Amino acid sequence: MKFKLLLINLAFIPLILNALPPINEIRTQFLAGVEDEKIIRNLLKELDTSKIKLQPIYIGYFGASQALLAKHSWNPYLKLEYLYISMTTLQSAISLEPQNLELRFLRFSIQHYIPSFLGVSKNLIEDRDMMIDLIKKKKFIPEDFQLVKNVIGFMLESHRCTGSQQIFLKSNL
Fold first, then answer.
1. Which residue has the higher pLDDT, 138 or 40?
2. Residue pair 125/112 in contact by the 8 Å Cβ criterion
3. Is the pLDDT of residue 64 over 70?
4. Taken in order 135, 118, 56, 69, is the CA torsion positive or negative?
5. Phi-psi region for residue 73, left (φ > 0), alpha (ψ -120 to 50) or beta?
6. 3: pLDDT confidence band, cut at 50, 70 and 90?
7. Average pLDDT for the chain
8. Rounded Cα distance, 127 and 124, in Å
């Protein structure tokens, strides 16, 4: 009897894993959520990590979406709470996949916009240097080249790169 229950449970695992939208759809929803709180709340429901074990990239978008909740909140206490939770979530994703360009970019882009006096933007240099190293080593999927171009563009616009890093990034656009 227990064996049958185990087989039934195992049969549903692919259905649960396939319930998540493709990462391109997550990216699109995330970008729309920058300006629309309703979209970001729906995305958080889709990515609720308590339901299933997510891949690091999905955990990263879950954490980045938590940061957008901070952006949309009017309550200063909730803003800080969402922000701290998001940084913890992003760190857990990066710990699972430290050489993931997109995860590093998510954290870098969020920390770039956080006022430094909050003391949350502690990974900017680490993430910047890691992203440049990953781009140098071409450690990304060729299909994600548009993502890489977006990362490079953001890094150049952020003015957080050294002169030599800017030259390198411009040569890779």
1. 40
2. no
3. yes
4. negative
5. beta
6. very low
7. 89
8. 5
